[in-house]
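Input sequence (356 aa), recorded before submission:
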Amino acid sequence: MKLVVTILTFLTVITGNVFCQTVDIQSKKSLIKANPTRYHNPVFEPILADPSVIRADDGWFYAYGTQDNWGDGNPGHLVAVVRSKNLTNWTFVKDAFLTKPEWKEKGGIWAPDVVKVNGKYHLYYAFSTWGDSNPGIGLATADSPAGPFNDEGKILLSSEVNVPNSIDPFFIEDKGSKYLFWGSYSDAPTQGTYGVKMSENGKSIPDLGEKIKVAAGDFEAVMIHKRGEYYYFFGSRENCCDGAKSRYNIRVGRSKNLFGPYLDKEEKDLRERGSGTVLVHRTEQIAGPGHNSRIITDSNGADWMLYHAIDVKNPTVSTGANRRFLMLDKVTWKDGWPEILNTEPSMEEHEGPFFK
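Predicted structure, token format:
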């Protein structure tokens, strides 16, 4: 028998009468579940490029973005940290770093990937400049998701691992082991996205020579998601940062093994250039959608992905930096493949995630 509880939601005295409202608790729960917060993109601006998102122990979602100057009169943010309860309403907290790492002479802190490893928050990051001949990947750690993160130094340099343009790190634990994936654009013979096994503490790589190539050098921003029997490789292709002309787009392939081979819907190997099934591409209004976060599943079982994109009519901030704001879209699955509605960034208002 359903339990019906009478709740006094208001007391209004009208002509001597007191009114009360009766609410069926089960119906109220169903109503909340069916009606999550409505939202529209972007969910944070002016900039949060190359976003990484984690749900921390305190119940908040924290998102981290590439070092950038927002054009707000303040110095460039050393990995801005923003937080939200529902993925749709974000507020700035602070910067993850107090000072820039010193293990490389020049560079910015790019493409952070934040995960919890052995009880601490690990922030893997790329250290690079535009056109850098020898970028690398480092690690910083913290007890709190907002930091400050303490730099623990270099994990690898491009020259050490013989992979040109070694940026965009992605960490994953699988079957009791820890792995790092990374890579970006290059035409060199050793170009591509690679993965390698890490040490148990997730702070070093025992043998760089064990790296395995999983995608060609026209991909970057690797993210791997396990669902059912498949691992899904998400990566971005084309130009990320050319303002309104940016043609960045997210593509996907899948494999039954972590290290591939990853094939797209046409069964083309992602280690071949020009491959990948398009998940989301630019529109007349929104340029350069790409560099996605990990997939987040809400309390209703729906999957969501955050990524950055650019407003074609307002593509830069006052400093000239690309105005890569934060976007959120629902990911659905059809015949074992992820889809975003119309393969386009959504700009109309619609229902967002629901979290208990």
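Checked by second reader. DSSP finds two helices and 27 strands in the chain.
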